[in-house]
Amino acid sequence: MSLSKLHCIIDCSGSMVEYGKPMLLVNLVRYIRQFTEQHDTNICYFSWQENITQLHWSVGSDVELPSTSGEGNVDALCKWIERNPDVKFLLLTDGYFKLNAQQRFQLSQLDHLYLIGVGGDADLPHLNTLSNNCYRAEQLDQVLHMILRSEIVAMIPSRRVDLTHIIENESNDDDW
User: Fold this and answer.
1) What is the mean pLDDT of the chain?
2) InterPro entries recorded for this chain (predicted)?
């Protein structure tokens, strides 16, 4: 598998404080944790504000996110993605961040960037310009299955089975 790792990046900028988005984020991350545990998926969680910071929760603890404030630093996000070329990215965001032309181009070239629009006011038209893999929060289950399925499809079988040999043996056992 070339892209066996998944990084879930959670937008914790100031725009994510409105309209119940903090609780929605917590519930989305809870679902992602349950899904990835059931499917033995290698995942790491990060918050995105001025910098990208890894989040850690113990196995039995609930999801706790940092307070939402400031802006999401798009340059830090682009550099993070550059430093991790063999990773799939799941970005939970409302899409309210500013990009320059170079950043927009860089993000739009990624086939392994999955954007989840969080909140009723999520700027989906803006997010759709960045990735063909842009979805609303209620489609998270579909996105996770798609990410997992693309990893399974990328795996080659460890051993081929010769079906013609098996069929040939069965026809010799006929006593007509």
Assistant:
1) 83
2) vWFA_dom_sf
The number of distinct structural domains making up the chain is 1
Residue 156: its pLDDT value, please? Answer: 46
Q: Could you give the CA distance from residue 119 to residue 93 in angstroms, rounded to a whole number? A: 8
Residue 152 has a pLDDT of: 52
pLDDT one-digit tens code per residue, 144-153? 998 887 655 4
Round to whole Å and give the CA distance between 70 and 28.
Answer: 22
Q: What is the DSSP letter of 49?
A: S
Structural domain for 73, as ranges: 5-172
Considering only CA atoms, which of 89, 97, 99, 92 is closest in space to residue 63? Answer: 92
The total number of residues shown for the chain amounts to 176
30, 63 Cβ separation under 8 angstroms: yes
In this predicted structure, what is the pLDDT of residue 110? 87
The CATH number of the domain where 104 resides is what?
3.40.50.410
Instruction: Count other C-beta atoms under 10 Å from residue 173's C-beta.
Output: 6
pTM of the model: 0.79
* Alpha-carbon gap, residue 27 to 87, rounded angstroms: 23
Tokens of 54: 């890894």
